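Hi support team,

I've been running sequence recovery on a batch of backbones for a student project. Most finish fine, but this one hangs at about 90% for roughly twenty minutes before it completes. I'm not sure whether the input is malformed or the queue is just slow. I've pasted the structure tokens below so you can try to reproduce it. Let me know if you need the job ID as well.

Thanks,
M.K.
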């Protein structure tokens, strides 16, 4: 399987999820990539190349999603507090990424993500947390999400845990994640670009995958209106857990 075919297959699932939730594309893409690497189906696509490419594509898809759904974007205290720590931490760890050994980091990531996924899928239906509690946890949540976002483009699992307590309405959830993914996606892309990691092949892959990304994103937007809160939360938990399992598989076989 050549890299562009693998990328296009993963994009079908990754950007459908993003159309539904406003985020989660890197979670699904990275999970699929880790499984492909573990099974020898990568076609020469490396983990680093996948991480760099998804950063580029995620920002462009976030910008498109924001343009299509700009009326739903939520500028509020909770998201702004999260971004206050998430953006600078994302920049720092994005700059560090090219020089780091991802082997042990992938294990830490997998375990953290599985924990977040199990929490989302298994927790009981709870009333929304108070605004004070959400504000109190926003800064540390943003910082932790920035670490995972800078290294793997996967701040979503941590963000999902806090936003799930802000309310179960899928529309409000997506409005918050659209803002978060646009701001942090731009920060990560600029930081990686300044390190010089991008090559011609990344943009060639983007050109081939662009129609798949757009089609999957639009399909997810259409499906979003048919979701109910509880299945929505269970689906989020399943996606996050999938990413963690993929990470563990990759670590075990590497």
């Amino acid at each position: 399987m050549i890299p562009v075919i693998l990328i296009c297959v993963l994009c079908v699932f990754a950007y459908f999820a993003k159309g539904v939730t406003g985020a989660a594309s890197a979670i699904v893409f990275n999970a699929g990539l880790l499984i492909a690497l573990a099974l020898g189906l990568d076609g020469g696509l490396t983990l680093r190349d996948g991480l760099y490419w998804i950063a580029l594509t995620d920002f462009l898809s976030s910008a498109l999603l924001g343009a299509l759904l700009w009326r739903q974007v939520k500028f509020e205290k909770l998201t702004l507090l999260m971004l206050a720590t998430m953006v600078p931490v994302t920049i720092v760890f994005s700059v560090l990424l090219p020089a780091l050994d991802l082997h042990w980091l992938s294990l830490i990531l997998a375990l953290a993500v599985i924990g977040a996924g199990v929490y989302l899928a298994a927790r009981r239906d709870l009333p929304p947390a108070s605004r004070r509690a959400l504000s109190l946890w926003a800064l540390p949540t943003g910082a932790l999400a920035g670490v995972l976002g800078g290294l793997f483009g996967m701040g979503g699992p941590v963000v999902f845990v806090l936003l799930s307590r802000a309310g179960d309405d899928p529309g409000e959830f997506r409005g918050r994640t659209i803002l978060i993914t646009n701001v942090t996606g731009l920060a990560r892309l600029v930081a990686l670009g300044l390190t010089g990691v991008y090559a011609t092949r990344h943009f060639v892959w983007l050109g081939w995958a662009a129609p798949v990304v757009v089609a999957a994103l639009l399909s997810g937007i259409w499906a979003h209106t048919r979701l109910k809160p509880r299945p929505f939360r269970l689906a989020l938990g399943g996606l996050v857990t999938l990413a963690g399992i993929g990470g563990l598989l990759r670590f075990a076989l590497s």
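--
Follow-up from support: It reproduced on our side and the slowdown came from queue contention, not your input. The chain has a mean pLDDT of 85. No action needed from you.
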